[in-house]
Inverse folding.
């Protein structure tokens, strides 16, 4: 594990030393506006073309006259299919990116992702159980969320073997728990009906927004927003913790307590997203590095930037997946195709040095 802190003094000056309030205000406006613009663009993209003007008109009609207008195809496509899909994709991308940013800073390791502590493997096992025993009910989301959180709890328990929770022990605990839940998931897939249940499990594990609805948004919004809000409030402490445990303790930080809070918030956000969207790889790993290229390593700015970039990234990936071919491409396939070459670029740029 890289023992050097993610926070660098020179990097933080990129944003924090902006003269006056105007540039900071513009930055906030930019971070809020860009995901909204990307969501709007996604509303008129797809195999069924709708012009931007018609999209605006349909949105206005839905707000003023209601969305229940039989025979209005544009109304159904925008309000019932594309809008909930874009909103859910933005929420999931923001959650995964925020969790990845926080954990990379907490563990001082640029290779950490949002699923490092086993939340994705646990959620996959829970969803597989839900598909087999409860078919298409809301229990799939509940079990995925429950086992995702349970996996992180086991990881943290393993990390406390020595009555403390050093970062390396948490990482090792996550590896162990992920392996166990992956094995359990393989067992469930082996026992599943190969004609009905197994295809559903495999498709869920690849991640998709195809069945996104306002119910999914309502279910995931509570843990996602709770987790992101907690990470946002803790972002300055992530800066301190990224300097090392000894330095953080000397500055009056309760290392163990703050680490628990950050891990819990990251778990909430990730589990909330994964439970309704499936396992989506690379977002929590790649997007934080995109943010560092733009803003530097100060988590007070990097975390909000990652939230915005993560939302935009996953919405764009979903647009590519549903608009490029006749059949929808799962999200994890596209994120891996994009994330792999991007990481090669990072390796070449930094040549194994500090990220």
């Amino acid at each position: 594990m890289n023992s050097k802190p993610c926070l660098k003094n020179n990097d933080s000056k990129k944003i924090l030393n902006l003269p006056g309030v105007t540039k900071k205000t513009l930055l906030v406006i930019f971070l809020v506006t860009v995901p909204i613009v990307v969501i709007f663009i996604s509303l008129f993209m797809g195999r069924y073309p709708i012009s931007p003007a018609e999209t605006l008109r349909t949105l206005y009609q839905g707000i003023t006259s209601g969305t229940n207008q039989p025979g209005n195809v544009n109304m159904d496509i925008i309000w019932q299919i594309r809008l909930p899909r874009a909103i859910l994709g933005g929420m999931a991308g923001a959650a995964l990116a925020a969790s990845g940013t926080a954990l990379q800073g907490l563990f001082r390791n640029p290779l950490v992702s949002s699923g490092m502590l086993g939340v994705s493997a646990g959620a996959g096992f829970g969803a597989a159980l839900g598909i087999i025993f409860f078919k298409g009910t809301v229990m799939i989301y509940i079990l995925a969320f429950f086992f995702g959180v349970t996996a992180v709890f086991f990881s943290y328990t393993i990390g406390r073997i020595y009555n403390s929770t050093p970062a390396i022990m948490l990482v090792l605990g996550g590896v162990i728990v992920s392996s166990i839940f992956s094995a359990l998931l393989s067992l469930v897939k082996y026992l599943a009906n190969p004609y009905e249940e197994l295809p559903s499990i495999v498709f869920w594990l690849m991640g998709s927004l195809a069945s996104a609805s306002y119910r999914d948004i309502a279910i995931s919004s509570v843990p996602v927003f709770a987790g992101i809000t907690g990470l946002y409030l803790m972002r300055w402490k992530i800066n301190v913790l990224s300097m090392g445990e000894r330095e953080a303790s000397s500055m009056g930080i309760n290392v163990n307590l703050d680490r628990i809070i950050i891990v819990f918030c990251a778990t909430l956000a990730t589990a909330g997203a994964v439970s309704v969207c499936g396992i989506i790889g690379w977002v929590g790993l790649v997007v934080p590095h995109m943010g560092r290229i733009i803003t530097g390593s100060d988590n007070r700015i990097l975390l909000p930037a990652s939230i915005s970039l993560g939302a935009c990234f996953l919405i764009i990936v979903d647009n590519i997946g549903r608009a490029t071919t006749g059949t929808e491409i799962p999200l994890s396939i596209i994120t891996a195709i994009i994330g792999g070459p991007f990481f090669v670029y990072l390796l070449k740029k930094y040549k194994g040095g500090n990220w």
